[in-house]
UniProtKB/TrEMBL annotation:
<protein>
    <submittedName>
        <fullName>Uncharacterized protein</fullName>
    </submittedName>
</protein>
Length: 582
């Protein structure tokens, strides 16, 4: 009776509050325990999601996004330690490296997706997921404003707030059109699963239109001209996949059209696959030329209409090229929600969110950002050169010996990865070689270096600072790293494992994030793939294609998707690709 009286008094008190109009309490008493959950609705129609009593003592972690970064973080997080809530406009994770295969029916769309709720089901602890879009981040009050994407009725479209103690921003990026007129209206993108499905239908529509009896020869050629704007990995892989689809499957279904099909890759730079070794770019161009794929380098698209693409050459001449389908794959841009958030925290002059080496958003406590929406702002050695010198000068003599510098070089390399990169680039064995540039040959390590000489020795080091590429590999590694930090949060408060604080006392709680490049692939069609692996190892051919199969199968997030993808590959070998317009 006391419990019921308590809830009666609470309900009366709550209803008297002018800011709220509804109050719901669900409770159960079992073995002396009480479970309660509440939802509240403000007078402005915005719901507030409040934590359950069971997890009231746990820190609330809100994850925005279910892409590579967000999903990898979620899969590796010990969710029993936190009250985890996930917000995303899509309720699945998509294996994006296989999207070019989806466009041509090599792999089915459902084979490369894993429902987020299935991932949450396998985790310990209670993980809540809302299929909604974050429309505003409020770091001052530790809230995010979300809006449901479901258009069933007006009540379900109400906005709601979600409180957080830790916010993980992993919202990815959007396609960068460079404000080119007509791109959004007339071009396909290849960023999401829905994009791949639209391209697949559009390819078949072009062939079906071209086969109609009332079209002229010029109109048939236009319908069967496929233009890919962007010579990066996605554009090149799609061009190769489309060529294989046409050569292996569609020419048998549309024999009268086989001589009219044309595929063109347009690149504004000097070569395609510029992020790969030049040998791979040259091989790709040669192979495309043998396959009949037209590669246009040095062409910049200035506008796109519904039937033609206008391109500008370096000579200043502008040409118009008719097309049937165009795919725009020229890089990524910042989402509007991220741009608005950057304005709030004073990062207006940047392309993406700036984080430190621990993936913490600069200027925001408890906010982390990873994946394509953020970039690590690596601290420069020269900014802390005096503090480094002071820490290394243990005898306070005002000079450094090579031996003294050797004692702190490991901590310096861990805090400033550009030091290690510089040593490798200059083929130096250790820090002694670096200081010898200023002290001369110092075999016994007795020569000493003052602050001016120390600055001179380390001045070129910051030239090795690099911005990490916006790839799935980087996002996945960041997700694993951040989840590990969250799992060890309490432990590292007492026993920090990071490098010393050169400006301050003690050590950092965690080691900074270090990206480890595991290699990259560029499928070129005809069961041939170019692979660039660590150690400057280049492999091009059929053996690399089988390595590509093995790696992509092993990287699937579940055995279900792994078996589906492998079975799709087997089906394609036996029966060919599906050409249905569905």
């Amino acid at each position: 009776m006391r419990i019921f009286s308590f809830f009666e008094r609470s309900a009366r008190s709550f209803q008297q509050n002018r800011n709220y109009s509804t109050f719901l309490v669900i409770f159960a008493v079992s073995g002396g325990g009480l479970v309660a959950y509440s939802e509240s609705k403000s007078s402005h129609g915005v719901y507030n999601v409040e934590p359950s009593q069971v997890d009231a003592k746990k820190k609330k972690v809100v994850v925005l996004g279910t892409g590579w970064a967000g999903t990898t973080f979620l899969r590796n997080l010990d969710s029993s330690l936190y009250d985890v809530q996930v917000v995303s406009p899509r309720n699945y994770f998509a294996f994006t490296p296989l999207l070019p295969s989806v466009t041509c029916g090599t792999v089915e769309a459902r084979s490369v997706v894993e429902p987020i709720r299935r991932i949450c089901e396998k985790k310990s602890g209670n993980i809540q997921f809302w299929e909604a879009e974050c429309i505003k981040i409020d770091p001052a009050s530790n809230k995010v404003l979300c809006r449901s994407n479901l258009n069933a009725n007006s009540e379900q479209n109400k906005e709601f707030f979600v409180d957080y103690d830790y916010l993980v921003v992993a919202m990815g990026a959007r396609v960068n059109t460079f404000n080119t007129p007509g791109v959004t209206e007339n071009c396909h993108f290849l960023k999401e699963l829905e994009d791949a499905q639209k391209i697949r239908r559009s390819i078949m529509d072009c062939f079906e239109k071209a086969s109609l009896p009332n079209l002229s020869e010029e109109e048939r050629k236009r319908q069967l001209h496929f233009v890919i704007v962007g010579g990066g990995p996605t554009g090149v892989e799609f061009a190769a996949a489309l060529h294989d689809f046409v050569r292996d499957d569609l020419v048998r279904l549309y024999p009268m059209l086989k001589d009219l099909v044309k595929i063109t890759v347009v690149e504004a730079g000097d070569q395609i696959l510029s992020m790969f070794d030049k040998r791979i770019g040259s091989f790709a161009v040669d192979k495309f030329q043998r396959d009949g794929i037209d590669v246009k380098t040095g062409y910049m698209v200035v506008s796109v209409s519904d039937k033609a693409i206008s391109m500008k050459l370096r000579s200043g001449e502008t040409i118009s090229v008719p097309y049937g389908m165009a795919v725009w794959s020229t890089g990524i841009g910042t989402r509007p929600i991220i741009m608005e958030f950057m304005k709030q925290i004073g990062q207006t002059n940047r392309r993406v969110l700036a984080t430190d080496e621990w993936l913490r958003v600069e200027g925001c406590d408890g906010v982390y950002a990873l994946g394509d929406c953020a970039s690590i702002q690596q601290r420069k050695v020269m900014e802390d050169i005096s503090a480094i010198f002071k820490l290394a000068d243990k005898d306070k003599s005002g000079t450094l010996t090579v031996a003294e510098f050797q004692d702190v070089i490991d901590d310096i390399c861990e805090r400033y990865p550009q030091v290690e990169l510089y040593l490798k680039a200059k083929q130096m064995r250790n820090a002694a070689d670096l200081l010898n540039l200023s002290t001369g040959n110092d075999k016994d390590g007795s020569k000493e270096l003052d602050i001016a000489g120390f600055k001179q020795a380390l001045a070129p080091v910051d030239s090795q600072m690099k911005i990490l590429p916006a790839t799935a590999q980087v996002a996945a590694q960041q997700g694993v790293y951040l989840a590990k930090c969250f799992n060890q949060m309490k432990e590292r408060e007492l026993d920090p494992e990071g490098p010393p604080r050169f400006r301050g006392t003690g050590r950092h709680r965690f080691r900074p994030f270090r990206y480890r490049h595991l290699g990259q692939f560029a499928p070129l069609g005809g069961e041939q793939t170019a692979a660039q692996l660590p150690g400057d190892w280049i492999s091009i051919g059929h053996s690399s294609q089988w390595l590509w199969y093995s790696v992509y199968a092993s990287k699937q997030v579940s055995w279900r998707t792994r078996m589906l993808v492998i079975s799709d590959w087997g089906r394609r070998f036996i029966f060919g690709r599906d050409s249905s317009c569905i």
